[in-house]
Design goal:
By secondary structure, the chain is α+β, with helices and mostly antiparallel strands. It has three helices and five strands, in the order E-H-H-E-E-E-E-H. The protein has a five-stranded mixed sheet. Helix 1 crosses helix 2. The radius of gyration is 15 Å and the shape is globular.
Length: 118
């Protein structure tokens, strides 16, 4: 089996760093179960699962992939509090890399994928 890396890109990296900063401040205040702490833990857990199995997430149909991502494949992992982590898989003979493109809340996810409430 090829080694797998999980790399956060652009918006996902920015969101993760911002979340990490918020969680750091909350932990210094003695907080242990905020929504942000739970979300960070969820991202870390799901990233570990994706690293163990790049096909862990739900594959999004090609016709539904927003053009802004400019990728051939897109996978979705559900996080706590209805957040989503979106990633693409790229590989060669040496390794597989899962590029996390976005970490977004449910409302933003629905808007990007043009889902509507009935």
């Amino acid at each position: 089996m090829k080694p797998v890396r999980v790399i956060l890109l652009n918006e996902a990296d920015t969101a993760f760093k911002k979340l990490n900063t918020i969680v750091g401040k909350q932990k210094k205040q003695g907080k242990t179960t905020t929504e942000e702490i739970q979300l960070l833990k969820s991202i870390q857990q799901k990233s570990t699962l994706v690293k163990a199995n790049p096909f862990y997430g739900d594959n999004i149909a090609k016709k539904k992939i927003p053009k802004e991502y400019n990728v051939q494949n897109l996978w979705r992992v559900e996080l706590t509090h209805y957040w989503r982590m979106l990633y693409t898989i790229k590989g060669d003979q040496v390794e597989i890399i899962c590029f996390v493109l976005d970490i977004i809340d449910h409302k933003t996810y629905d808007k990007k994928f043009k889902y509507r409430k009935k």
